[in-house]
């Protein structure tokens, strides 16, 4: 794989074959992460935020949280000054917030290609792919269990998507690989098929440790000791419960100075109260307890405060997406997290739809827009999510990823330079004139407007002649084009061999397990 | 028609038939217009706004605007202190803004059912249907020229859509009716098939006068003299040109104290500069000149400052929708209009897609969300727009109208009452528990979450068993259901007869014209 990659890519490797490859190489455009030049929407006023903060402190002190089957965690909390009874940890008011204060407000997640490294926090926004679906769907084969080949396709698509900054983690579950060995193949895909930053395994502490070791091969042991090279997803078992598996992975990552997203996973009405303010209170309490715990494991460990929030359809019990309640919570949680001085993770290409149809796009756009405007710093699930997260959609991945370009341009704000003001154009054209030919337009039109790479802008007749394709069909064509053009990024053959050897050795040490 | 309406509706008409009708009547839920309880997103800072305002004054003074073929308008401007040369009107700095100051910041548009009257301006938001398409599309018959029967279907759907506050105007062009007689049939539909507020004709000053006269029959002459009962769309011929037809209609409406939306219609790059700030400058100059002119026609006449803005696809020349440039302009124009102290019209269910597919929903949601957050007071085209405004879609109308409910709930903000805080629920459930059964959930779940009336939340298997319908198919079913259940609102038979007599007489006075 790595040899092939080197031959195909030919970047900086010298030699005739490399030079020939250079001339024919597919150009990968990759936008830098978003640095917002626009304000956030501050949905709640200070009085509301202070009330929620006070309530969250009450929740932590009076109700407390559970760290289940984790005596070491209970010891850490006891030592920090919490009241520990059984596995219940009651945290005195002010303590959790104080512990959170040692987490950095912003950190760099390094990619093996330094140009793809991302700054997480501040006014920045980083997009990462869908995470977790056991199924995939495409137009050709429909809905089916995901395989490692599907996984690789998503990694390739993310690599080739201009507006996608991150390779993600479990872009889909490779169900054809034994459960206890999946993380090796997933990490191999991220490490070799892409040069964007990625996430590590969290399904067992030992798999987190494997992730760190593979990063040490990829980046070098010293580099990993001093830098953050993974940002991994640690879900809280809402309400108010931190299970041993997730906390075990967090412990591994925090101690290795690797970043965790500490994130309540809430279906409102089931795992949290049915109200926005009540849910925000619970989210804040959970996030503060989880982030505080990361700092008990290693003071200064990088962390992202997350909020995955959806509502329940009270008729069917199904989770719903792109809803106004989720939007209000996303805005409010952003404000609360900023007051904690932490990077914020929320929003995504959420939808409950079974198909990449209008419903899926309404719901996705609602969520993407609120994600930008609520100050999200790390948006997991930014493309490809379908059917409540059960399905990763290839076609939706590319159309969602295209829409991320809308957010990029919107986040850039308004150019108020003389060119932006365009007074010369207004003077040249005058009443009743046409701007297409004027000097200002000629000088600026190429970069003036964001342009979709997949949506259809053609006149009706042309569009009809070309088969009258809907968005899913346009997405399918784009998936095929990108996968056909895909070429892996260059990778040192020694490193590639090292990764392969490590994976082969570790896989040989364990029997296959399928659950 | 009116007799039937009375018999079927039976609201407050007494008698046994009426009482029987009452029991079986279809209940029409109609939400009040939105009163925002959330902040607007203030995209531009004061320095940027002041620069654009200064530039707009420069445009008006140095470049000026054209009032073509309209000697009376030129006289009015000359008298007001403008420099008039030929049909070019150069407006000294400060004059247009000063003239705008007599327009009301907020006004009531009365509906014949007082419960449906709307307050336009302030923190309010009123939704109105798509306006202007010559074609309609539905799943059964595809794309075709619109007829008066299609027009009536849209009026019925708007009447039955809970989140749609307004019946609109030219919801589609009834191309089967002679051009010079269409306005009669369109107004009849709005007046008899709905009891929501509506728009008048603007395609000729005489048709505006007909609209006023029909309103005098519907509301009473005295009521119309003292109240605003129509809000009609006056487009500016950008750049900087005010044609005699549109201005003639504006003159009729302003003098009758009826409201006009004074609105640049801009495809950026063609009718305005390719930059956001340049377009905002032109929009502000045009809006100020147009609103100022309305006040020269009648000081205090109600008016809405509009901005219809899209970009051009520089490859194909096609207009594009749901783009970030349009969003930035919509946000900025909202700020500029608020600083003028006027109600603001912008955004809508815009899309360039040919089908009600994912593209149409991405683009529509982008625009709807920015419409809410940019402080729009009157959103024309809030549902049903397709294919760049060439097509009105029945299925998209109902799915868009459903999404307007998302904006309603979002605009309501966060309930910070004790019930909203839900501390009792958090205490009752505790770590690891479940909120579905708790007392707080039981007391509040019915109203806790916005719920779509058309989108699919069912489990995959149920959805598949029911035919695996996409959003367009779900929309089709909803259209059929609503049209089947439709019953016209009650109307005094004398008024209905009066309208019919007026229309019959006026139609008989003129030969058919088809262009």
Structure description:
Two copies of one chain form a homodimer. By secondary structure, chain A is α/β, with parallel strands linked by helices. Chain A has a domain at 418-448. Chain A is 47% helix and 14% strand. In chain A, strands 10, 12, 13, 14 and 15 form a five-stranded mixed sheet that branches. The first copy, chain A, has a four-stranded mixed sheet with strand order 3-4-2-11. The longest helix of chain A is centred in the middle third of the chain and has 22 residues, at 276-297. Chain A starts with a helix and ends in a 7-residue tail after the last helix. Chains A and B meet through helix 3, helix 11, helix 12, helix 13 and helix 14 of A and helix 3, helix 11, helix 12, helix 13 and helix 14 of B.
Rg of chain A to the nearest angstrom?
24 Å
Q: What does the main sheet of chain A amount to?
A: 5 strands, mixed
> What average pLDDT do the residues of chain A reach?
94
Find the count of extended strands of chain A (DSSP E, 2+ residues): 18
Task: Specify the oligomeric state.
Answer: homodimer
Name the poorly predicted regions of chain A.
Answer: 1-14
* Largest interface (C-beta under 8 Å): A-B, 127 and 127 residues
Shape by Cα distribution of chain A: globular
Q: How many separate helices of chain A?
A: 20
Which band does the percent of strand residues of chain A land in?
A: 5-15%
| Derived structural class of chain A | alpha/beta
Distance between the termini of chain A: 30 Å
Task: Give a short summary of the structure.
Two copies of one chain form a homodimer. Chain A is an alpha/beta fold and 515 residues long.
């Amino acid at each position: 794989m790595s040899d092939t990659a080197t031959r195909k890519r030919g970047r900086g490797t010298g030699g005739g074959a490399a030079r020939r490859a250079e001339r024919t190489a597919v150009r990968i455009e990759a936008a830098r992460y978003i640095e917002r030049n626009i304000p956030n929407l501050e949905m709640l006023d200070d009085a509301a935020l202070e009330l929620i903060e006070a309530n969250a402190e009450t929740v932590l002190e009076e109700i407390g949280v559970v760290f289940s089957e984790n005596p070491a965690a209970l010891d850490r909390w006891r030592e920090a000054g919490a009241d520990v009874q059984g596995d219940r940890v009651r945290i005195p008011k002010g303590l959790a917030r104080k512990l959170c204060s040692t987490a950095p407000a912003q950190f760099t997640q390094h990619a093996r290609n330094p140009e793809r490294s991302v700054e997480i926090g501040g006014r920045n926004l980083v997009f990462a792919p869908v995470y977790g679906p056991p199924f995939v769907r495409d137009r050709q084969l429909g809905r089916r269990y995901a395989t490692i080949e599907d996984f690789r396709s998503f990694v390739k698509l993310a690599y080739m998507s201009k507006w996608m900054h991150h390779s993600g983690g479990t872009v889909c579950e490779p169900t054809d690989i034994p459960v206890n060995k999946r993380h090796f193949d997933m990490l191999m895909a991220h490490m070799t098929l892409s040069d964007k930053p990625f996430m590590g395994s969290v399904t067992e502490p030992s798999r987190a440790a494997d992730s760190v070791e593979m990063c040490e091969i990829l980046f070098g042991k010293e580099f990993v000791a001093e830098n953050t090279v993974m940002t991994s997803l640690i879900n809280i078992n809402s309400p108010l419960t931190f299970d041993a598996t997730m906390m075990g992975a967090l412990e591994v990552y925090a101690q290795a100075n690797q970043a965790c997203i500490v994130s309540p996973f809430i279906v409102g009405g089931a795992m949290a109260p049915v109200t926005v303010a009540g849910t925000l209170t619970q989210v804040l309490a959970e996030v503060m307890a989880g982030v505080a715990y990361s700092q008990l494991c290693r003071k200064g460990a990088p962390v992202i405060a997350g909020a995955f929030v959806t509502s329940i359809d009270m008729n069917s019990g199904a989770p719903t997406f792109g809803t106004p309640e989720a939007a209000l919570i996303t805005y409010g949680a952003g404000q609360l997290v900023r007051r904690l001085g932490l990077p914020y993770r929320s929003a995504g290409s959420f939808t409950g739809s079974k198909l990449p149809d209008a419903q899926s796009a309404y719901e996705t756009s609602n969520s993407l827009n609120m994600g930008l405007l609520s100050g999200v710093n790390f948006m997991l699930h930014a493309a490809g999510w379908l059917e409540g997260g059960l399905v990763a959609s290839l076609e939706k991945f590319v159309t969602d990823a295209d829409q991320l370009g809308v957010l990029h341009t919107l986040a850039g704000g308004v150019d108020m330079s003389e060119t932006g003001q365009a007074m010369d154009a207004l003077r040249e054209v005058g009443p009743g004139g046409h701007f297409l030919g004027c000097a200002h337009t000629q000088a600026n039109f190429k970069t003036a407007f964001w342009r979709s790479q997949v949506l259809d802008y053609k006149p009706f007749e042309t569009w009809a002649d070309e088969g009258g394709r809907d968005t899913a069909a346009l997405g399918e064509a784009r998936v095929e084009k990108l996968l056909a053009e895909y070429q892996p990024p260059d990778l040192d053959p020694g490193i590639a061999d090292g990764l392969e050897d490590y994976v082969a050795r570790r896989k040989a040490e364990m029997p296959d397990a399928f659950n």
